[in-house]
Amino acid sequence: MHRNLYLNKPIIYFIATLSILTFSIALTSSIYPYYVLSLKIDMTTYGLINTLSSIINIFLRIPFSTLFPRIGYFKSYCISYILLILSRFFYIASIFLYPLIMFMFARIFMDMRYAMISTARTAVVTKYVESKNRAFTLGFISSLTIVFSSISPFIGSYLYEKLDYNFQQLFSISILISLIAIIPLIILVRKYEIIERKEKSLGIIFQIKMIPKIIAYKDLKEIFFISMIDGFAWSISGNFFQIYLAKELSVKPSELAILNLIENIIAIFGLTYIGHISDRLRKRVIFLFISEVLGIFSLLFFIMATNVFQIFFIWILQAFVWIIWSPIISAYISEKAEKFFSKICTPNAGRMGLP
After folding, report:
1. Nearest CA to 214 among 296, 336, 298?
2. Is the pLDDT of residue 203 over 60?
3. Could you report the per-residue pLDDT of 94-134, keeping only the tens digit for each?
4. Which of 58, 125, 196, 289 is deepest in the core (most CB within 10 A)?
5. Rg (CA), the chain
6. pLDDT category of residue 208 using cuts at 50, 70 and 90
7. What percent of the chain is modeled with pLDDT above 90?
8. Which of 221 and 157 is assigned the larger pLDDT?
9. Would you say 346 and 354 are in contact if contact means Cβ atoms under 8 Å apart?
């Protein structure tokens, strides 16, 4: 491991915090569809709740990105930590009273937390790690996240069965594990916080004004609408995949954990390799086309699937869709945007819904 990573104490504490929270969140991922079904929420309402929380997620990314230097990087991260704890309490509350309302608040808090954490990781690493070590540090953090999100669902499904299928107790365990992260967070805030009230950064109004220019820019216009359509199609089905597996094919939580592991293994070995090939060949559009074709076939196969073994094959196919699309679309957007916009404006494309 890189020597400078060991010497950088803020990043070590930050990685410890991320690891604990990743483990606590993933603990309930394999039982989540069963929890939703137990609330007896109709799927139309469930879809509306997901849409609402996703819209909130998108529109909060811009203000969250300007928040870090003004109130402190780790204090901002503490806000996402509080949102996580609140979401878990609302998940538990939904089991006992007003399931629809409580579940809606749980999802909103969870997506608000995701909107903040999606910008927090890069912001913290950029501020506290030298440029020559940033790629390694981000890669190391991503690898750890994948490891913990692979192990935790198996433990969660095991505990779920041992606890007589009790959702409340499993969510409570998730909260208790999350509370461990208070220790490194306190150290980060008290010893390593940086507040830069005078730092020059893009204001919220400026970033919002840039959005129409990004949409109208000829080299980004087509890929913007393709991504919007693609995102719309996958968002329709993506929120219902595991619920469908649990309800229609009677897939067990442990089997959902295996599907998650398969996806993560492919991601570990595939993301860097596919990106490397794309960089060498410089044929981004061809790779994006292949990803779209694989995505269409995976959805068709999903409709025809009748057992969990077929689902394993489909999950592998969908994992390849993701590892091809995700790094290449980001690289493609950055390359096109840099021709007209400064590098600091490039991330606005992502905030409009692009990966």
Report:
1. 336
2. no
3. 999 999 999 999 999 998 888 788 777 777 887 888 767 77
4. 125
5. 21
6. low
7. 37
8. 157
9. no
Question: How many residues are given for the chain?
Answer: 355
- In 10 A of CB 159, how many CB atoms? 18
Using alpha carbons, list the distances in angstroms from residue 326 to 215, 322, 332. 20, 6, 10
Determine what percent of the chain is predicted with pLDDT higher than 70. Answer: 79
Given a contact cutoff of 8 angstroms between Cβ atoms, the answer to whether 122 and 346 are in contact is: no
Q: Distance of alpha carbon 190 from its chain centroid, rounded?
A: 28
39, 116, 127, 239 from 32: Cα distances, Å? 11, 22, 35, 11
> Rounded to a whole number, what is the largest CA-CA distance in the chain?
59
3-state class of 211 per DSSP? helix
Cα distances from 182 to residues 20, 68, 190, 191, 245, in angstroms, run 10, 19, 12, 14, 36
Q: How far apart are CA 32 and CA 329, in angstroms?
A: 29
Instruction: Record the pTM.
Output: 0.80
Closest CA to 57 of 178, 235, 229: 235
pLDDT greater than 60 at residue 198: no
> Residue 31: which of 239, 237, 178, 246 has the closest Cα?
246
pLDDT, position 1: 44
Spatial distance between the Cα atoms of 250 and 24, rounded to a whole number of angstroms = 25
Among residues 76, 57, 347, the alpha carbon closest in space to that of 201 is found at 347
Give, as one character, the DSSP assignment of residue 192.
Answer: S
